[in-house]
Amino acid sequence: MKVMDTLEILLVIYSCAVLINFIANFIMWRAYKKDLYKISCILWGAALFHFITQGLFQKMSFLSAITLVTSYPVSISLRKMLEQSFLEKKFDYKKNHIVMVLGTLLTALLFLLNQPFEVYAYPVVIGVVYPALLTAYEVFTSKERLNLSSKFLSIFLVLHSIHILDYPLLRFSDFAILGFSIALILLFGLSVVLPSYVIAINSQNNSLELKGEFENKDKELAETKDYFNILDKSVLTQLQLYQERFDENSALLSTLSHDLGGALQIILLNNYRLDKELEKVKDTYPELLVFNQKNKDATGRIITMLDSIRKIQKNILKGADVNEIIFNSSDLFSSVSDNCLDEAEKKEIKFSFDSDCSELVTFGDSEILFKNVIANLVRNAIKFSHRGSEVSINIKSTDEIYYIIEITDSGVGISSHDIENIFDLEKSKRLLGTEGEKGSGVNLSIAKKFMSLYSGTVKVHSELEVGSTFSVYLKKYVSYPEA
Prior knowledge:
This protein is 67% helix and 10% strand. By secondary structure, the protein is α+β, with helices and mostly antiparallel strands. The strands form 2 sheets. It has a 5-stranded mixed beta sheet with strand order 2-4-5-7-6, with helices on one face. Strands 1-3 form a two-stranded antiparallel ribbon.
């Protein structure tokens, strides 16, 4: 009676330990979705099922021998778990299944031949332990560098196999308690070693995944670097080609501007000489004097335009001057009067000047600002103003970043369609003034180009038959105290 009580206690402890391991691994599998936890869950589930089937057949019989087959999934699960520690080797399971089937058939045959339990049970036992012993052998003879937990688990496989091999001898003998005691010791050992192995393999797999990701990233970076190197060479080649073409065009433009400017200066000088001769016959041929004056005006405008083009080219090639310049608003107004008074007097146009600041501190070139920007915009305002009207020049300093110089006329105005292209050298139209004045059509483009070189701009607001306001945004010069 005492023997049965002890055996029952061992069975309860064994069943509880298996059940706890199964539940723990099931939770881990559902939480982390790792294959090793899934296999471990199957292993403990198979062990629990094996324990239940053994409990159903307490007497020595063919069925108690055949139910040993339920331990086979435990061996296969352990083999699958240890397969995870190999990086290159993949296990063969076909032979394991063949051995198990043959062992089961041989057990049935020996039972039919009336062999004792210890004899007919062994073929099934061999089928069960074969995968475990084969796995342990493959681990210890492997040329791969396996982690230590794999070898510890392989040792338990060997011990588990030895315990299964003693099953036919101890199961129904007086040493049954000894057999269950060994099984319980192995169970607790496996409960410690198996989780350690799972953690080690998961860490190894995570490291391999990270290594693979880093290698892929390195490969992508290398490919990207090669792509950008090729692209860089291509872009550099294109830039060199564009630079060569730009230099050629710049040299050609500079030569043409210089040569044309020289020729036009001679023409202008001859026009002035011709004025003296025409004065003698102005009563007879007054139209010749008017014609010569128009020639002088046209020639002067072309010379001014060529001078502006040369200055733009110079600033692009050598860099715009960003030195601080200071000038009074009265200097600007005087320059407008000096440069544009003739055109204004011809159309009886008056100037009005206003400013909320006496001094402007900016950077750039005051000559370019006065003659090539402001004067061009004032001439444009005169051109499209009606006779006897007024052109106003107003300087505002209320903006934090820019001085705003507004040139306003009450002329014909500009349509919304023409405003879109008014600063575009290729798309802008050459329009006649209110009295048929002609122009090159490039002065507004030149003015805006000059301002862009000095971090400024030119904007326009206009209404047809109301007038136009051109606003020059001149960046304020800000000096910072030395540290």
